[in-house]
Specification:
Elements lengths: L12 E3 L5 E3 L5 E2 L13 E6 L5 H9 L9 E3 L5 E3 L14 E3 L5 E3 L5 E6 L4 E5 L2 E3 L5 E2 L4 E5 L6 E5 L3 H18 L3 E4 H4 L13 H9 L8 E11 L3 E2 L16 E2 L3 E8 L2 E5 L3 E5 L3 E3 L3
Helix pairs in contact: 2-4
The structure holds zinc ion.
């Protein structure tokens, strides 16, 4: 069957017969760089930031035969798209990587079974008297600085906000990839290489994006309203998270053992509590004063 033309498509993105991305909004620059000749049957998508200065410079580096890193797609702040390598070929975006999936299965070596999407973003910023700076010395406008706690860190840091275009486009590109390849998992590099990697970082709404894209697979979720129910923390330290998920970003320093909380909602065993801040905690570590 011939590929439908742009005008017959309603989705913003789809995958061509050459395993390159197609965008309804316009052309995607395709480089067809093959640093690794192995075929890829994608089972997961890994989200990265480039830590670079521009999508072109990052794509150039990922295309450079002397650089031992590559990825499938680079996405600029203005929505620029560069397909470095087709989605059906192995790239070197993940490095040493390991993840325990929900079913308890542990998998390593994500390059062999995942697609790498690189979003143009410099990563963690340094606060200086002159403003917040990237590692390569560029000052980021104050209204583009996000202060947040990384899921792998204990204290807040400063991060460059992703653009609304980047977030929407990543979500819709993931939707196209999931539809085309039957992909089951969307993960951050920080989740498969914790300690070594911090991308995409807390400025990227990873939990929201994967819930939106993979939500049909997560029908186990149930949510109840609780009367405001007082209780206390039973764990020695308890993280407060933005969403009811162990991988969601922390919103504050952890609660200490015995700290009073008020639970107002419950979802999948998590309580939405009001403490010194409000957020989600694992309900197994809170004892509520209800009969
Ligand atoms: Zn990465």
């Amino acid at each position: 069957m011939p590929e439908p033309t742009d005008t017959t498509r309603t989705a913003p993105f789809w995958i061509g017969d050459d395993h390159n991305l197609r965008a309804r909004s316009g052309p995607v620059e395709a480089r067809n760089v093959l640093k690794d000749q192995r075929d890829l049957a994608p089972e997961a998508i890994v989200i990265h930031y480039t830590a670079g200065a521009s999508p072109e410079s990052s794509a150039d580096s990922l295309s450079d035969p002397d650089v031992k890193a590559s990825a499938h797609l680079v996405l600029g702040r203005g929505g620029e798209l560069i397909q470095v390598t087709p989605f059906n070929k192995v790239t070197w975006h993940a490095g040493k990587s390991e993840y325990r999936f929900g079913d308890g299965q542990v998998r390593k070596g994500f390059n062999g079974f995942s697609i790498g999407i690189e979003i143009d973003n410099p990563g963690e910023l340094t606060a200086t008297l002159g403003g917040h700076r990237t590692w390569f010395g560029r000052t980021v406008a104050a209204d583009e600085v996000v202060e947040a706690v990384h899921r792998n860190q204990a204290t807040a840091g400063f991060w460059h906000a992703y653009t609304a275009d980047q977030i929407t486009m990543v979500q819709e590109i993931c939707r196209a990839l999931v539809g085309h390849y039957g992909i089951k998992h969307i993960l951050g590099h920080e989740e498969i290489s914790p300690g070594r990697k911090t991308d995409p970082g807390p400025a990227f709404p990873l939990d929201r994006v994967r819930n939106n894209v993979l939500g049909a697979n997560r029908r186990d979720e149930t949510e109840f309203d609780l009367y405001p129910s007082p209780g206390r923390v039973t764990a020695s330290r308890l993280n407060i998270r933005a969403e009811a998920s162990p991988t969601s970003p922390r919103v504050s320093v952890p609660l200490e053992s015995g700290a009073p909380v008020t639970a107002v909602r419950e979802q999948n065993g998590w309580y939405y509590v009001r403490a010194q801040v409000a957020g989600w905690v694992d309900g197994r570590h809170v004892e509520l004063d209800r009969g």
